[in-house]
């Protein structure tokens, strides 16, 4: 698009309110006057003054706020159960029970708040590093500016693939169309023109306005900003709706697990309460004991353990320059089994270098270079591209005398590039000679040319085989042309080819090998030529397998495509809709799919994938559509994210398996003991204290190391596995509990206080130390060592439990000192228990049913993405 020359007029720093609806019904001159601006934009000083008055152009802020984080901690059903139990204990006079439950509540809420708020602060800092930029004309010069600095009266350029940064009254358009589905739900792009809208125009009738959050799907334009931030049409809707995130697969698994616990707790609580009433025990005692059982079977600090794991993962990924938009998405990274990635910048260096210009005969020729410089839809100033694609930038940055010659041409009309035509054309004039120049994908350009020589086809194939990127250039005379449409891209004469080099990335081979070791299959989706993509894959050691092109895809139905994806690695010359179709077809095979892309033509595929991944240098639409943003476009960084997600899930499952089995065993023992003892086997306060100490030791689990085999493949929630684990290992714990009961009653002739003290110590020791067997499927300590914090926490809690009956706190808690002979018996029992657990563990994980299968995909899983949410959210300034 031609650049306006500076004029003598200058905008003032004053403006009056104006909306897109009112601006649509006003002539452009009236809009400029109302905004106090001019066609060449504001001055830098005026823009700075208005920014102070209107504030940043942002709908929402990513600032971490303590109170909302605190409220989120209170949503857990487990915490609600604890709170109800605490209130009931307080009002029936059991103040000790109420105090212990209060400590548990405070610990869970406090730890969850601390870790999530810390992670929110880290995310806030990372969001500051992600920039959305727009090309703004100020004082007659175009330059990229951060979108949060836009103000009413700014003149902005709109290019293909950009998210419209504010409500803009258009002043010039070239075949401009905008995808407004984010506002209207209409999937067909809206054509834009300069015709005035009627005074009572609705949102869908603003044909001469481009609205914030919509996407430039084709063409280009220029306009003046009339509203920013919350004053835009998008801003009013977004602020009214708020932000509500859908449930991830990880959250879905947690919810199903909580439901399992509720069911088990309900059955045990009702049964124990009925048994105690049948034995004519006081109703209050029976009720409190039953509630303590219900609380005891639930892993009270599970929210804290999960938030601690996610926070640790977010800090790890932050160091790797990975931004995960929500913490729970970290675990989703670990589920990736197939990664579709673009080629440029991921497998290649992404630094496009112009090499040479080749004529139709395959020999060096400068004609294609000259016309290639003229044929661009980018803004060019002082022989430099201000905003354009990497190929145009590389072309104009290359030293060549043709650049001076190219500046003699005047671009009278431009037909911008789009991903359907794969072409850009200009109507240009020099010395009274008017021509149409077309530049684009060779296969497309050649079909519009007359008499293409065989030498040109041979030269083209040779360049493709060498792995080079090729752009074809063709021209024709157009002496009477005044405008330009796609029908004018015909009867062309081939001038030749522009050859570019994008070498393979040095780190890509190592990254591909690492992803393969993690069980992630990498496939390439590219708009480039199939031969070029295959050559790059071969150079990096990635077997290309079969190759499918966009034309091949059109001949396959969905079922056939799903079958072909299993043997295809390279998908070449594909369009935006075809990319999304490939991703959906792969997901139909039952695997989790990630898509890495950075262009506007990648947005649909990012929506369709289980995990959408983009990069900081991507187009705005791609960054907003993604779940994960890489601050460096490197597959090594993505591999780090996969490992972090799997590590978090593995450590969470350690806690779940150990907690549910041990707690179930203890509560089953309590239920059985209460049926034949003349007293409660453990006081409610002792049960709660036991769980508090035990859970506190498990807060170190997120620091634990994870065996390599658990990182090699995705692991998923399997409620059936958890249930079987609980029913197998829980009774083993109960078996040793009943053995202890016999020793205490017949060996030590224990009264109620001594019995409760002995079981308290034994229960705490067995269920805490069993973590060392359950945390790994290997031989503990020999082939898999726990982390130092976990080892210290577990041994420390066992020591506290052992000495507690001999401290001054014993009396209020209902304990009494234990004889030395008890600890000898306890040591033998713990050794026997851990040996039996180890034997059972080896049997359990050898059975086919113990292996977690692929989950059945929930209907609509992740398909909530119907349109990207473009709020240009930044941290509020000032």
In short:
The protein is of the alpha+beta class and about 900 residues long.
Describe the structure.
Helix 6 runs parallel beside helix 11 and helix 29 runs parallel beside helix 33. With 878 residues, this protein is an alpha+beta fold. It is elongated. An eight-stranded mixed beta sheet has the order 8-23-22-21-9-18-20-19, sandwiched between helices. 47% of the residues lie in helices and 15% in strands. It is found in: Cell inner membrane. It comes from Amycolatopsis pigmentata.
Write the SSE topology.
Layout (H helix, E strand, L loop, with lengths): L19 H5 L3 H8 L8 H11 L11 H8 L3 H15 L3 H33 L5 E6 L2 E6 L8 E4 L8 E13 L1 H4 L5 E2 L17 E2 L4 E13 L5 H9 L7 H30 L4 H15 L4 H18 L2 E3 L4 H5 L4 E4 L11 E6 L8 H8 L4 E3 L2 E4 L2 H8 L4 H5 L3 E6 L7 E8 L2 E8 L1 H6 L6 H12 L3 E9 L15 E9 L6 H10 L3 E5 L4 H10 L6 E4 H5 L3 H7 L3 E5 L3 H12 L5 E4 L6 H6 L2 E5 L4 H6 L2 E3 L4 H42 L7 H15 L9 H4 L7 H29 L4 H18 L1 H4 L13 H16 L6 H4 L6 H25 L34
Parallel strand pairs: 9-18, 9-21, 18-20, 19-20, 21-22, 22-23
Antiparallel strand pairs: 1-2, 1-3, 3-7, 4-5, 4-6, 4-7, 8-23, 10-17, 11-12, 13-14, 14-15, 15-16, 16-17
Keywords: ATP-binding, Cell inner membrane, Cell membrane, Magnesium, Membrane, Nucleotide-binding, Phosphoprotein, Translocase, Transmembrane, Transmembrane helix
EC number: 7.2.2.14
Function: Mediates magnesium influx to the cytosol.
């Amino acid at each position: 698009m031609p650049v306006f020359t500076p004029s003598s007029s200058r905008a003032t720093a004053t403006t009056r309110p104006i909306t897109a609806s009112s601006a649509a019904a006003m002539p452009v001159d009236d809009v400029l006057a109302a905004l106090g601006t001019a066609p060449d934009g504001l001055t830098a000083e005026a823009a700075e003054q208005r920014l102070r008055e209107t504030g940043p152009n942002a709908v929402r802020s990513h600032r971490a706020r303590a109170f909302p984080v605190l409220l989120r901690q209170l949503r857990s059903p487990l915490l609600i159960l604890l709170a109800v139990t605490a209130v009931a204990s307080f009002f029936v006079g059991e103040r000790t029970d109420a105090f212990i439950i209060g400590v548990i509540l405070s610990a869970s809420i406090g730890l969850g708040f601390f870790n999530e708020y810390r992670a929110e602060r880290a995310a806030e800092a990372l969001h500051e590093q992600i920039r959305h930029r727009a090309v703004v004309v100020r004082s007659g010069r175009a330059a990229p500016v951060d979108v949060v600095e836009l103000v009413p009266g700014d003149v902005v350029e709109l290019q293909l693939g950009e998210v419209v940064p504010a409500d803009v009254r258009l002043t010039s358009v070239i075949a401009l169309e905008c995808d407004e589905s984010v506002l209207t739900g209409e999937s067909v792009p809206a054509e834009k023109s300069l015709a005035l809208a009627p005074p009572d125009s609705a949102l869908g009738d603003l044909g001469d306005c481009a609205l914030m959050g919509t996407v430039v799907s084709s063409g280009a334009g220029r306009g003046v900003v009339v509203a920013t931030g919350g004053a835009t049409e998008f801003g009013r809707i977004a602020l009214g709706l708020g932000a509500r995130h859908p449930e991830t697969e990880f959250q879905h698994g947690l919810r199903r697990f909580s439901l399992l616990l509720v069911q088990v707790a309900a059955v045990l609580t009702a049964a124990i309460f009925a048994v105690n009433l049948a034995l004519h025990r006081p109703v209050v005692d029976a009720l409190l004991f039953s509630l303590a059982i219900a609380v005891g079977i639930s892993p009270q600090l599970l929210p804290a353990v999960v938030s601690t794991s996610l926070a640790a993962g977010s800090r790890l990924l932050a160091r790797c320059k990975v931004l995960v938009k929500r913490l729970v998405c970290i675990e989703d990274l670990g589920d990736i089994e197939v990664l579709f990635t673009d080629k440029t910048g991921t497998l290649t260096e992404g630094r496009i270098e112009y090499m040479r210009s080749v004529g139709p005969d395959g020999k060096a020729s400068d004609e294609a270079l000259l016309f290639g410089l003229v044929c661009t839809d980018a803004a060019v100033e002082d022989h430099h591209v201000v905003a354009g694609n990497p190929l145009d930038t590389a072309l104009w940055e290359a030293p060549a005398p043709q650049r001076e010659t190219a500046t003699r041409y005047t671009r009278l009309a431009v037909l911008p590039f789009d991903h359907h035509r794969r072409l850009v054309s200009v109507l240009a004039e020099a010395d009274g000679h008017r021509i149409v120049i077309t530049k684009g994908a060779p296969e497309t350009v050649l079909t519009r040319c007359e008499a293409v020589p065989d030498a040109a086809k041979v030269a083209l194939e040779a360049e493709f085989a060498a792995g080079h990127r090729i752009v074809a250039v063709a021209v024709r005379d157009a002496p009477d042309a005044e405008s330009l449409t796609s029908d004018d891209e015909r009867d062309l004469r081939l001038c030749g080819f522009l050859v570019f080099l994008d070498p393979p990335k040095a780190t890509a081979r190592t990254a591909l090998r690492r992803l393969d070791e993690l069980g992630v299959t990498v496939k390439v989706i590219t708009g480039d030529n199939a031969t070029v993509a295959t050559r790059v894959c071969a150079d990096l050691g990635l077997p290309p397998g079969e190759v499918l092109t966009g034309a091949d895809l059109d001949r396959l139905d969905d079922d056939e495509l799903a079958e072909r994806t299993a043997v295809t690695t390279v998908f070449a010359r594909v369009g935006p809709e075809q990319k999304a179709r490939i991703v959906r077809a792969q997901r139909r095979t039952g695997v989790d799919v990630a898509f890495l892309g950075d262009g506007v033509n990648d947005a649909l595929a990012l929506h369709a994938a289980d995990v959408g991944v983009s990069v900081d240098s991507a187009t705005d639409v791609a960054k907003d559509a993604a779940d994960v943003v890489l601050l460096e476009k490197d597959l090594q960084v993505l591999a780090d994210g996969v490992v972090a997600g799997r590590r978090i899930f593995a450590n969470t499952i350690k806690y779940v398996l150990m907690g549910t089995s041990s707690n179930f065993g203890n509560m089953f023992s309590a239920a059985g003991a209460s049926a034949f003892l003349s007293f409660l086997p453990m006081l409610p306060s002792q049960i709660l204290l036991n769980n508090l100490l035990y859970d506190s030791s498990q807060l170190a689990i997120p620091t634990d190391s994870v065996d390599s085999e658990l990182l090699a493949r995705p692991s998923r929630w399997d409620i059936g596995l958890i249930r079987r684990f609980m029913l197998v290992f829980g009774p083993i714990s109960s078996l040793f509990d009943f053995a202890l009961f016999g020793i205490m009653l017949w060996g030590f002739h224990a009264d109620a206080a001594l019995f409760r003290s002995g079981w308290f110590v034994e229960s705490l020791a067995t269920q805490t130390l069993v973590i060392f067997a359950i945390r790994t499927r290997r031989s503990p300590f020999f082939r898999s060592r726990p982390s130092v914090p976990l080892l210290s926490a577990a041994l420390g809690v066992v020591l506290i439990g052992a000495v507690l009956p001999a401290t001054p706190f014993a009396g209020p808690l209902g304990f009494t000192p234990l004889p030395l002979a008890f600890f000898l018996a306890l040591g033998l029992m713990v050794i026997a228990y851990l040996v039996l657990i180890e034997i059972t563990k080896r049997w359990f994980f050898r059975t086919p049913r113990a292996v977690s299968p692929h989950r059945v995909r929930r209907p609509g899983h992740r398909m909530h993405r119907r349109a990207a949410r473009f709020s240009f959210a930044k941290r509020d300034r000032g």
